[in-house]
Amino acid sequence: MPENRIIPITPKAAAPKSADGRWESRLTASPPLSLYVHFPWCVRKCPYCDFNSHAVKDEGIPEQAYIEALVADLESALPQIWGRRVHTIFIGGGTPSLITPDGLDELLTAIRMRVQLDPQAEITLEANPGTVDSGRFRAFRQAGVNRLSVGIQSFDDRHLQALGRIHGRTDAIAAAEAALTHFEAVNLDLMYALPGQTLAEAEADLATALALGPQHLSCYHLTLEPNTAFAANPPEVPDPDLSADMQDHIEARLAEAGYGHYETSAFAKPHRECRHNLNYWTFGDYLGIGAGAHGKLSSHEGIVRETRPKHPAAYLAARDNGTFVQERRSIGTDELPFEFMMNALRLNKGVPRRLFSERTGLPFEAAEEGLLKARQQGLIEIDDETLRPSAKGRHFLNELLMLFLAA
Questions:
Q1: pLDDT for position 222
Q2: CA 308/CA 299 separation, integer angstroms
Q3: CA 376 → CA 26, 143, 264, distances in Å?
Q4: 355 burial level (CB within 10 Å; 0-12, 13-18, 19+)
Q5: Cβ-based neighbours of 365, under 8 Å, separated by 6 or more
Q6: Which of 10, 83, 105, 264 is the right S-S partner for 143, CB 3.0 to 4.6 Å?
Q7: How confident is the model at residue 133 (pLDDT cuts 50, 70, 90)?
Q8: Angle of helix 134-143 relative to helix 169-182, nearest 10 degrees?
Q9: Which residue from 90, 1, 9, 136 is spatially nearest to 287, judged by alpha carbons?
């Protein structure tokens, strides 16, 4: 009987420059794959929100039609991800917790029947404290959700009213307690630098959150985004010095409490980082389905970005004509270094240098000119193994990324 042999498969090195002097991208393996599902409805549009969200009208949410469209969208995209394992699912919005437990169960069942889902997949659902109770959380957990992200924003009734939230302090605490009862992985969203907020009030919000004991906290500086109600009628917000004091307190207090500051606005207990978001920042792939969803997918032909129709009515209509992808654009090799760095450098510890070639298909030399300039300006640190943002660069790169994403 012939002896079994293992035939090694050695990937080719990233391609050199072409005849015209441009770098060529040659991926040697597929990046990790995630699935993002967008649920576009909310009870009321918040004045600071620039996400693709739409207040529920009198006729209500066309839940069944939307679930059927999501499933059809996923099916149409299957050839692009065939044979690849999905490691995380994130259901965002909008307010996904408006979906009925039966509807969520139907959706997750349909996904499991169509994709190769990792048995240990992280499945996150965003929730609004004004739309849930303990029984609803229990049903979401039974449907397969294993991580919950609760949009608290503040525990102060005055600030919640200024932010246009539909919940109050009592609702926020009850929702957080219910989430922690039914889920082992819970994130609480907080915002600071709110209209009229003092340092003591920001400290009080954080103290309340810490007393609840979540495994993960996301702490966002309020920004007045274009095309929002706050942009049209700007409220009076804390000055930059006071905002910086709030940020300093948040970072110091969370470090003291044992939360690692692993990403610009994210803090987690050990091994409790959001795996879905980490895949974004390490330039992994993600298929986005739902109204206005974005995706990034890699193949032997290159790396593309996709978008779906933004308005829910247009997305539902796409099911009839079978054209869910509104735009598909190849990422040019000249764009790849910037896109990779503006994501990866959100991570405070940085990323291994080798990841650049693995995720872009380009040799590290393709990024060196830009990196040299950034290092000379004190924005990044580079050694033989790692790329990381400097203390100065963390703030700068985050602001630049926000401008890039908004473009």
A1: 94
A2: 20
A3: 29, 51, 22
A4: middle
A5: none
A6: 105
A7: confident
A8: 40
A9: 90
| Distance between CA atoms of residues 116 and 132, nearest Å | 30
Q: Token digits for 142?
A: 């039974």
User: Element (H or E) spanning 305, and its range?
Assistant: strand 302-307
**Nearest to residue 338, comparing CAs of 401, 263, 402, 265?**
401
What tokens does 8 get?
Answer: 């090694």
Amino acid identity, position 189: D
What is the C-alpha separation between 151 and 406, in angstroms, rounded?
22
Q: Hey, CA dihedral for 200, 247, 171, 181, is it positive or negative?
A: negative
Long-range CB pairs of 58-62, under 8 A, 24+ apart, other chains included: 61/98, 61/99, 62/312, 62/316
Q: Is the pTM of this model over 0.85?
A: yes
How far apart are the C-alpha atoms of 389 and 349, rounded to whole Å?
8
| Residue with tokens 């449907």, as numbered in its chain | 143
Encoded amino acid at 38, one letter: H
Using DSSP's 3-state secondary structure scheme, residue 387 falls into strand
| Token pair recorded at residue 256 | 């003291």
Alpha helices in 129-270 (DSSP H): 134-143, 157-162, 169-182, 199-212, 229-232, 240-256
d(CA 205, CA 212) in angstroms, rounded, equals 11
User: Beta-carbon neighbour count of residue 225 at 10 Å?
Assistant: 14
Tokens of 394: 């963390």
CA 140 to mean position of chain CA atoms: 20
Give me the chain's average pLDDT, please. Answer: 90
Strand partners, 88: 34, 122
Question: Distance between CA 338 and CA 15 in Å, rounded?
Answer: 18
β-bridge mates for residue 33, sequence order: 86, 285
Condensed to tens digits (0 to 9), the pLDDT of residues 157-173 reads 999 999 999 999 999 99
Smallest CA-to-CA distance from 141 within 95, 178, 98, 94 is with: 178
Contact call for residues 369 and 338 (beta carbons, < 8 A): no
Q: What is the pLDDT of residue 12?
A: 53
Beta strands of 30-177 (E only): which ranges?
33-39, 41-42, 54-55, 85-93, 116-127, 147-153
Tokens 């609803």 found at: 136
